[in-house]
Design goal:
The protein is an all-alpha fold and about 150 residues long. It has five helices and no strands. About 5% of the residues have low confidence.
Length: about 150
């Protein structure tokens, strides 16, 4: 640390301080929770995008069952919004977000299994890999510590 910068000069302002090395006792955010949050954001945006795609596909013709179409579209939008809320809470380090994010990943693994069983490997492989990466990031020691768990 440069001689002109003392630990007292750091204050309580936001991190990062441009070009400075933090004192050893400065808490640092680890990459584990950030990776998991990024995966959850991508999953939420994918659900919202799929809901939008369903709406666009509807404009091209009449669905065979209007009620199923409306329910599926609404389900994709609501579920995507909830997953994005989980990602926002995880980004802020809210304790309950870890459990919700793990639950989302376990559901994604179940969807991965069904995709693979039906032979849709183009969807199963990326979803499965993303879910495993997110679970590893959430359940690693740094991920658990970010949510206040030992």
């Amino acid at each position: 640390m440069p001689a002109s910068v003392t630990p007292d000069a750091w204050g309580s302002g936001p991190w990062p301080y441009a070009g400075r090395v933090p004192p050893d006792d400065t808490p640092r955010r680890t990459r584990g929770p950030a990776i998991a949050t990024g995966v959850v954001v991508a999953q939420g945006l994918t659900l919202v995008a799929f809901g939008a795609w369903l709406m666009v596909a509807r404009s091209g013709g009449t669905p065979s069952n209007e009620s199923v179409y409306q329910g599926s579209t609404a389900y994709m939008f609501v579920t995507g919004a909830l997953v994005l809320l989980v990602a926002l809470a995880a980004r802020r380090g809210v304790g309950w977000a870890m459990g919700a994010a793990v639950f989302v990943q376990l559901l994604a693994l179940a969807v991965t299994y069904e995709m693979a069983k039906e032979g849709f490997w183009a969807g199963a492989v990326p979803l499965g890999l993303a879910s495993v990466v997110a679970l590893h990031s959430l359940l690693s020691p740094s991920g658990r510590a970010a949510f206040g768990r030992s």
